[in-house]
Amino acid sequence: MTSLRFVERLRDLVDGVEVVLSDIWGVVHNGLESFPEACEALHTYRRRGGIVIMITNAPRPADSVQRQLRKLGVADQTYDAIVSSGDLTRHFVADHPGKKIYWIGPERDSSIHRGLNAVMAPLEQADYIICTGLFDDETETAEDYRAMMLQAREHKLPLVCANPDIVVERGDRLIYCAGAIAELYRELGGEAIFYGKPHRPIYERAMALAAERRGHPAPLDRVLAIGDSVRTDLTGAHGFGIDCLFLTRGIHSEEFEGIDQLDPASVKELFGHPPRALMRELRW
């Protein structure tokens, strides 16, 4: 299938959908402000009996993500639960007690280590790297880490990527994320371990939480993912076997100008596997 279906409202898609797995950044906020219509759409879907699990590549625990959502004006009633790549990374650390960690990331991500008795060490003494982001994502790119990644490769250090995103929106700008460093490390021959979309563990955890709240698992053909990234949201949903509503106003907005005129070959090149439907921005 290479045709695209455009919809104006979420209610046109959720007949028979029991669970929504929604991205956060780019769907309900842009890092600086929330999107009230998107929040209201998810809240309305929940009031009608649906379950909303937020799945995010944020490199922080779910409770830290929730605090950020509250600050941005995203009400708790918008969703049932949050699953973050930070939570999954914390499980990795807990499963490797006593191992020395070299941490790459900004101080705001320090909650990823909270309560884990993590042992921090310089790069040359570490057993593995955890990357939650760039030290300064306002000014740096992955290329600033090339020498460090070459040194890490020489020490054969695994790099655990706590946020597979390459870029995200911050207001009207795109900033680089941990995924950009992890992909550079892979290109240089290093071993990278990814937690978060598009990889299965985050979807498995989200479906388990949905089953807890519903009292029984939902069939995959009654689950809808929502996101704005081809690389993480769309690829992850397709790999897990669920449909995806793709929002075009996010990180790919320039690529999607005039998308309704695309020929089938261009659609396939852009998406690989087209989403179930496209919408500019989420609204009920």
Automatic annotation (TrEMBL):
Recorded GO CC terms: cytoplasm
Keywords on record: Hydrolase
Short name of one Pfam family: Hydrolase_6
Entry keyword Transmembrane: no
Record flagged with keyword Cytoplasm: no
GO molecular function: phosphatase activity
Family annotation (InterPro entries): HAD-like_sf, HAD-SF_hydro_IIA, HAD-SF_hydro_IIA_hyp3, HAD_sf
Protein name: TIGR01459 family HAD-type hydrolase
